[in-house]
User: Which sequence fits this backbone?
């Protein structure tokens, strides 16, 4: 590959795009520079921009909100389900309904192109699929795009589909909505050795628009058909991802084994272990517990040589860059409660069963 002389958007990228789309059961995958770029480009491919409003959650990596703001749209924040940490569909509908206003005369005349409440961006946080059936139903009723943030959920599936999918694993996240964004940051379940991302869709028009946007709007080299930008997956990262994709299912399966062991060993403890909805296959990018004594527990585990992290310690709406300026739908009590209690335990494919038992034993001792 290195002797071929082509290092950007070459054969390796094209092959990875085909293989990743096939793995997910999608029509198209478009390699881009990062997960944030993937979400930004997916939003722009749907025509989202200044004046539009995009419903998402505050309990997420800040990249979700940053990507929305890069388009010029306004993020509108919705509370989470306290058991799954993903978007609460009932709170979503309340927020969408409350956000309605009568259209002006000018908007009515342009109603074929005006989509004020533009989109929903559900986040499959920690590798746990959001309730896409309920979210899609709301999107249909209010005529909203659905753009999935799959940055932490490579290979996560839902199997209670009507009509049923032909994939025995179930339907992969990233194939429910109109378009989806994936990250290949090195710590992800499918990670590169640097930044990388992909936009996934089964809509040929959205795929073509994304390809234009990722490279200056070029159909013909050096001639921009639309305003675009530079966000391209490089050949080296694509080659690495092609190899790692072969091991994704096995590594996700081992994550589930580790999660089941944590569940079993912590069943009688005072911490709350993760909840997964029926018919959903969680891929445990993170294994996140809740504890009313989170900070003391984290300090104790640190004293025992066990590293933990908090994903995420400050919800987006409370961070200095965003505080007081983002619309919040119906309050965010579950989001704010979660950030005071959540703790991510060690979770990665190389973690051994004995190491997981040591972590659980330390929690029980605390």
Assistant:
């Amino acid at each position: 590959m290195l002797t071929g002389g082509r290092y950007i958007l070459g054969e390796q990228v094209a092959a990875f795009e085909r293989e990743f789309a096939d793995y997910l059961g999608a029509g198209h995958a478009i390699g881009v520079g990062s997960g944030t770029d993937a979400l930004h480009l997916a939003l722009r491919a749907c025509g989202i921009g200044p004046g539009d409003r995009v419903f998402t959650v505050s309990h997420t990596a800040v990249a979700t909100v940053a990507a929305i703001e890069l388009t010029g749209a306004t993020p509108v924040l919705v509370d989470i389900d306290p058991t799954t940490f993903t978007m609460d569909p009932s709170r979503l509908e309340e927020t969408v309904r409350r956000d309605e206003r009568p259209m002006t005369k000018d908007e009515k005349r342009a109603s074929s192109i005006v989509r004020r409440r533009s989109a929903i961006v559900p986040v499959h946080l920690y590798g746990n699929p959001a309730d896409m059936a309920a979210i899609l139903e709301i999107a249909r009723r209010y005529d909203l795009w659905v753009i999935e943030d799959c940055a932490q959920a490579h290979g996560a599936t839902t199997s209670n589909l009507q009509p049923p999918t032909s994939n025995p694993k179930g339907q992969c996240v990233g194939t429910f909505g109109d378009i989806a964004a994936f990250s290949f940051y090195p710590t992800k379940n499918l990670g590169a050795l640097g930044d990388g991302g992909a936009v996934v869709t089964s809509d040929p028009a959205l795929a073509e628009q994304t390809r234009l946007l990722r490279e200056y709007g070029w159909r013909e080299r050096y001639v921009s058909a639309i305003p675009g930008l530079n966000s391209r997956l490089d050949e080296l990262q694509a080659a690495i991802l092609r190899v790692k994709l072969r091991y994704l299912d096995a590594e996700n399966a081992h994550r589930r084994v580790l999660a089941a062991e944590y569940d079993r060993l912590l069943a009688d403890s005072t911490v709350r272990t993760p909840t997964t909805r029926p018919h959903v296959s969680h891929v445990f990018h993170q294994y996140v517990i809740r504890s009313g004594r989170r900070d003391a527990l984290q300090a104790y585990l640190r004293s025992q040589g066990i590293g933990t992290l908090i994903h995420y310690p400050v919800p987006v709406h409370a961070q200095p860059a965003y505080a007081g300026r983002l619309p919040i739908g119906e309050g965010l009590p579950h989001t704010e409660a979660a950030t005071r209690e959540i703790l991510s335990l060690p979770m990665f494919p190389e973690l051994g069963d004995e190491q997981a038992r040591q972590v659980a034993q330390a929690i029980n001792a605390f």
Notes: Residues 111-116 have pLDDT under 50 and may be disordered. The radius of gyration is 21 Å. The chain is about 35% helix and 15% strand. Residues 248-365 form a domain with the Aspartate Aminotransferase, domain 1 fold (CATH 3.90.1150.10).
